[in-house]
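Troubleshooting log. The previous structure file for this entry was overwritten by mistake, so regenerating from the original sequence record. Sequence copied from the archived sheet and checked twice against the printout by T.R.
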Amino acid sequence: MSSKNQVVQFPGARARSFCCGAALLLATGCGDITPREGAWIHEAGAITDDTCNLGADTPTDPYGEFTIGELNGDSFRITPGSADSFSCTLLGGGDFECPDRVADGIPIDNFDATINVNVRVDGTFSSETEASGTQTFSASCEGADCSNPLFVQGIKLFYPNTTLPCGYTIGFTADAK
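Regenerated output below.
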């Protein structure tokens, strides 16, 4: 696979995986609010704070289903319908965080460069069946070739308005089924 193809994958396939379902993550171990285990539905909101400038290629989490499970003290797991499950921590007061919804390093062939992608989720349960929050995406480059003109040109070829590091935030709401 060429380095060009791998660069294309970073915001596309991998980023979509992380986002798809990420906005679904919610929970808290606060006071008397305990999220209901089982099936939930989430809906993504607007993109804000966008420094990636991907336009229509910006990965988002469309309306979708996920499961909250393994509720254990101050932790739980989210299992999206189309991506790997991930852990979250209940912070109290209805708040929760999932700092590593997606944490992936994508090495780029023929370059000393790795695209690091992270998606974190922060939210609040307003009841055992309702939550809202944000999903924050960030991408950066690590390695000696990150400023190599050929590497930068490869990114610009497919994403002309993107410069690393970059990021964006997507709001979401979720309800138990």
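Residues 1-30 have pLDDT under 50 and may be disordered. Archived copy saved in two places this time.
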